[in-house]
Amino acid sequence: MTDKKRVNLNERLYITKSQLEEQEREFILKRHIERYSLARQFAEGITLDFGCGGGYGSYLMALNPDVSKLYGYDKDLHSLDFAKEQYKWDSLEYVYDTEAIGNIDTLVAIEVVEHIKDKSVIPIVAKKHNVKKVVISYPTKKTTHYNDKHFYDFERWQLEQMFGEYKLVDSFNLWHESELLVFVRRDLVGRNI
User: Does a structural domain hold residue 81?
Assistant: First the structure.
C-alpha cells in the first residue's frame, strides 16, 4: 500500500466499545465530583449531605475548613457501609436517620431531588433542622423516560416553589445538563451567615 492510500488514523477516531463505555463511566464520575466540588464552596458549619450515596461527595465537602461537622445521610445501608469504609474523616459521620441531628447550617442535595417521590421530604428536613442554606442540583434535561429511578423532570421555578421559605441567591448551569441552586432562608438574606 502506498502512503497516499493509507488510512490517516489522526483523521478518524477508532475506539472499541469497551473503551467508549469506560470513557463514559469516567466522564459521569468526573461530572458528579465536579458538582460536589462546586457545592462545597457553599457548605459551612454543620452540613448535611442528603442522599450521600457512597460518600465521596460528603468526604470532599468535609475537607472544606468552613465545615465544622458533616453528616452524610442516605436511606441505603449498603451505600452507608461503603461510605464508612472508604471515606473516613474526623468531622464526618454517616447516618441512616437525621432524627438525632440538631440544627443544620447547610443542606446539600446533589442529584437527589428527582429520586424522591414525595416532593416535601427535603423541605420538611430543612424546616425540622432549621437549615439556613440549601444547595441543590438537579438534571435540567428530561430524564424520566430513560431513568426509572427519576420521578420528576424539574424546572427551576418548581424548586423555587418547593423551597418557598428560601430565596434563590445563586445558580450555576452545569454543561447544559444540570443546574446547581443555592438558597438562603428568607429571614437571613443579606446577613452574613
Answer: yes
Q: What's the confidence (pLDDT) of residue 5? A: 59
Whichever domain contains 133, its CATH number is: 3.40.50.150
C-alpha span between 110 and 107 (Å, rounded): 10
Domain that holds residue 118: 15-188
106 burial type by CB count under 10 A (0-12 exposed, 13-18 middle, 19+ buried)? buried
Examine residue 1 and state whether it is found in any structural domain, yes or no: no
Count of H-run helices and E-run strands, the chain = 5, 7
Q: How many domains are there within the chain?
A: 1
Q: Using CA atoms, how far apart are residues 136 and 35, in angstroms rounded to an integer?
A: 10
Q: What is the per-residue DSSP string for 107-140?
A: EEEES-GGG-SSTTHHHHHHHHTT-SEEEEEEES
Residue 5 resides in a domain: no
> Which cell is 121 given?
421530604
* 76/179 Cα distance (integer angstroms): 25
C-alpha span between 169 and 133 (Å, rounded): 10
Instruction: Give me the percent of the chain exceeding a pLDDT of 70.
Output: 94
